[in-house]
Protein 1
Amino acid sequence: MFFLVCFDIVDNRVRYRVVKILKGYGTRVQKSVFECANMTEYKFMKMQSDLEEIIDHGEDTIRYYPLCKHCVGQVEFSGTGNPPNTRAYSVL
């Protein structure tokens, strides 16, 4: 499965830890946005669990958007960057 993960983290130290975790699962496409391709259900649940343990649930937000293969193929962008890697796509 393919997930777009977006976050808004208040504390700089926690934000750094969130970024470090997400770099292990995906590609940073903007300062607070990662594209996580080829996610199995287990990998997604592990990533989500790792992130949920470190954020402040009263101030921080992490959003996980699953995208189907067709939707990933329809992603448009302007400016610098690369389109999502649809070849790395797998189904849960």
Protein 2
Amino acid sequence: MTALIVGGDRLGSIPQVLNERGIENYIHWTGRKKGMRNKTIPTNIDMIIVLYDFIEHNLTNIIKKEAKSMEVPCIFAKRAGSDLAMKLDVCKYCRRCCT
């Protein structure tokens, strides 16, 4: 399973949280610069994780819209492993695909 993580300059304990839930691969975009708005979301991802306390505001709206059109689950969390773990545990989409 592959996740696109948008936001956060450093991921800290987030890769460990993802690994514990069966998400082995991830792509990380910092999401701080305007140029990120023009990036294309990869088609080989299974979910998008937006770290909303470290992201350019307009990019959040673009990611949300693209996730919906691609029918990919999109999770919004703080850049804290504990918050992301909680959001992944309650996500109805993730319960189907994460262990």
Protein 3
Amino acid sequence: MEYLKAVLNSDKNKEITNLKKLIQTGKKLNKNIKKYEIELNKYNKEKATTPIKIIKRKTKTNTIKKVSKNKITSSSKYTIESVESRNNMVIIDFKTKISKSYVKFMEKKVNNAYQDIYDIKGNFKDAYPTKLKINGVKQIVIKQEDKNTLRILFEDNYNLKTIYFLVNDKRLILKVLDIKNSNSKSTSTKNTKVTYRPGLNKVVVLDAGHGGKDPGGIGPRKRYEKIVVFKVTKYLESYLKKRGYKVYLTRNKDKFIKVRNRTVLANKKKADIFISIHANAIGKAKAHKLKGIETFFLSPARSERAKRVAAKENGSDVREMSSSTKRAFLESLNRPRITASHKLSIDIQRNMLFNARKLYKDTVDGGVREGPFWVLVGAQMPSVLIELGYITHPEESRRLYTKKYQKALAEGIANGIDSYFLKNP
């Protein structure tokens, strides 16, 4: 009202004062204040009656510019604040919030060299003079591919293993997981392989779903869920151990274990995370339609799909609870643990999908979802349930039964675990 009165009375000074108050209050309340900012900018331009002078003083090494404090320097048009290499990572800090859509990845082989290429949405003032280096990587090239794309290229004589993930909405990290010192001048280390070990002092318990008398979902040509998930779990165990994790399995063979007992081992070993691995299933009517990778974390279900999947995975467990009692119990769960589980599920889903799409570009992203999975209830640590795909889908079940795809999924999960612990040490 005060602003409107100032406008009606043509009192510019009061208009400016009240515009500033509206903008300040609007920001606190998360309101749209764009129109007020536009109006205030008009007055700021009117007040700037004298031109801003730029004084250049040349030195032997560079040119120094002195500008008015109100001057928006040319660097403000750049969306990337800084790029640096540290240990086995390249860290990119942005000025604004970003999402995974900002990153596009591709692999190339040029002559005898392997390249991992990241095209990043944004522009960086010092792209050309900035030099990046990671010991054990032949070269890292950074350049502004076009005005809206920063390209960072890793190149070596062997196929590098790189991943990416977001931190705090404004930071992107590109990480080299496996480094060979193939470029070292020292003959004693020429053939030495240096492996990054982010899992030191971390305990992981892996649960291969179903087993024994419980086959889980059954797909075409008698493809059993219990077989697929056990093989992926074993590959995942191997990858994690190589990275320094201490890994335990709830079952080491085709054995039936009650759902309620699967987290007992995780609590006993004081695991840092618990991961239950499954494959989804649906009735024949929709078997040809439904496919895709999903990752769930424990929470009261909010969708019919989540309830359906949970009902399938909870099938072998018998709990003497009414539906209202179950919901009340889930609502009482430790919220920080649920939050941590949500973060873990995001990292696993993103990296697992990324790896799967290297083999099959049409892999469907089922997303990260909430669900009332009783296998996760007893875990006293962050825990997730992974659905590797639909065992009932003709094509997806065929892929799930191939060694190459099983390894790709396992490696993606391992990369997701690495990503989670790097951000949540």
